[in-house]
Amino acid sequence: MLTVQAKVKMSFNFNGYHFDLKPGDKLLFANDVFASLPEELQKAFEKTNTVLPPFYDGEPLNGKTLFVFMQGAIGDVLCSTVALREVKRRYPDCKLWVSVSGRARPVLEKLPYIDKLFPHPAPIKEVVKAHYFIKAVEMVNTPAFDNLNMVKWFLWKFRLYFAEDETPEVVVDEEIVKELTPIFEEVKKLSGKSKVLLFHYLASSIHRTLPPKLLKEIEDLVWKDYVPIICSLPEEDLTVEVALEAYGIRAANLSYLMKDIRYLMAAVYLSDAVITADTATLHIAGGLKKPTVFITGPIEASLRSDTYPTVIPVRPNYIGKICKSPCGVHATSEPCPEAKIRHQFYSPCLESIPPKVIYFALKDAELLCEKDYPKPEKCPLCGFTGTFSLFEVINQHRIFECPSCGLQFPYPVKAMDYDKAYKGEDSEETLFQFTEAYKFYTSYKSLDEEEKERKKWERLPRFNILLPILTILPKGKLLDIGCATGNFLLITKKFGYEVYGIEAAKEAVELGRKKYKLNIAQALTLDELPEDFRGPYKVITAFEVIEHVEKPFEFLKRIYELLEDRGFVILSCPPYFKFENLALSYRKYKWWHHDYPPHHLNRFKPWTLYYGLKLAGFEEVVVFTEPLLTGTVLEGITPKGIDLKQDNGQVIHLPKEVTTFIILDTMKPLYVNARYLGNFMFAIGVKGKSGINWEKVLRDAIAISAADIMWRDDKI
After folding, report:
1. DSSP single-letter state for residue 53
2. CA 64: distance to chain centroid?
3. Domains plus CATH for the chain?
4. CB under 8 Å to 637, separation ≥6 — which residues?
5. What mean pLDDT comes out for the span 374-397?
6. Cα(604)–Cα(31) distance, integer angstroms
7. Which residues does 242 contact at the CB level (< 8 Å), separation at least 6?
8. pTM for this predicted structure
């Protein structure tokens, strides 16, 4: 940000405004905006020092004037409307002045809570009249902006932090709506459809633009419900028609009608749903609360859409030769480096997204917009009754969160048919089919002879962490719930337990019995146990089971009843706070994972699992995860190469392979000490008192397991 004054009389057009300046007239510029001035105009100014109003830091604003100095593009300015509106809601007697580019001015000029709009650059003589000043020009490629949701970034700059409504304010021009309505009606009439899908596949940067081929594939999926239309602003692309013809896309191209941003707002208003790679269109659709799918590869989707209750973001699951999505690069003037290596134009991460994933996302966005829907009356774990927050819609299921224990669960509840899944016969298409986990249900037939099979599973981190713990637990009868073909039973046999297992899938039961002569029974619930399987047991285990059950409290209570006094239960489930989630915020919509219905019905935070076991009667409860390991660190971060500039001007480049090694080697102490950051969460519950020093046991078990997995020499 800099202040300059005119050295000569000037008259010029710039940044959407006309300026007439006399010698000595002062303007306030964002640095990069000044740099975009023609060189002859830059030379006509000289830098000067001016005392500006103090930066606003949360002081009461009634009766005061707040000057907001903004730079951003249309999408950024749309996001700012949340903070602008919230200022006036909290301080109705304040005056709100805003400086903004001419291109983005139409977004703000009809908002009732803005008292005066100024150009950017702003006249200093007006700026100095304000009591407080907000600088909102340090945007893309600044740490705070690149790591905060855009709406939250503006709330932070305004020292507001939260807003009553965190969706943008979008004022639609009624005259433009009247102008476009007949055309929209004609498109629906000619296509025979009753609903319009606005598809904006162009983005402000090449590497965020969707391949037209993807549009064609999505169009074929939505055609039975929607007629797609394309509405691109004039300056965005001149090749839309060529792309439509080349790929046989049936969408109606209404881009010729989009004279400026006001027309795009009206087009979104008249549409029934939106699919977009463009952030400005995203913010318009979010503000108008339209069912929307936001597709992004290079940038983290939640940083743009997380505050919008009707938007589903779709992110790729792409690992390439030199990058991993999201790479974090917001804007480039050419194809991304990965695309250039592959000799292509469009970003490979975007090309990797299956069209059906986007279609499923659209169906979920439609559910988000429904006003009346079934709501739970009672938490299935702690029994809380009251209001439950809707956390997300995913895979056509609504996920609610209990405000008492933190459990996340779907309502209505319907588990998947595991017999069909194990046979690969699940005919219903869902997101789950696009995950690696889906392959697990058809890979269980690949079994080695017993000792090799046991050693294979002992090296798996989620079982390896239990090896030290099993050595100190008392021996006796052990029941493994959801034992599959008996992999954990092979391990516990070695420790001297009398092992039993139950499994819902018939074929897995038969394989475990035949291959390893294990005592396994087929049962979907604990109430279906055969007579000789009804305990009591010294130890009961259930790995990745509790997230699948419809009534988790009843499940825990039944386990408690099956245990001997001073008996032990060991549970595991997906972790809510693993390193990957902490590094990239909670990935709310895990398209590429499997932590959603009908596969997983419950999500547990550490205290949720603890609370559930205590409610079921367990006196001692401890919670931990498997060790945090090298590979899982790289799931949460994307190391980048760096250039080191020396005093003599020489630049040393460290490729990402080197920086990766440095990061992972530096983090080795974390691997052997991380209590809650691993990929699977465990809980141990004791029916009675164990006398075990759990803090010491868990500390040592995690350290030993991390060393065993990463550094064990199998020759010793």
Report:
1. P
2. 39
3. 1-168 (no CATH), 174-368 (3.40.50.2000), 445-627+672-711 (3.40.50.150), 631-670 (no CATH)
4. 583, 663
5. 94
6. 48
7. none
8. 0.89
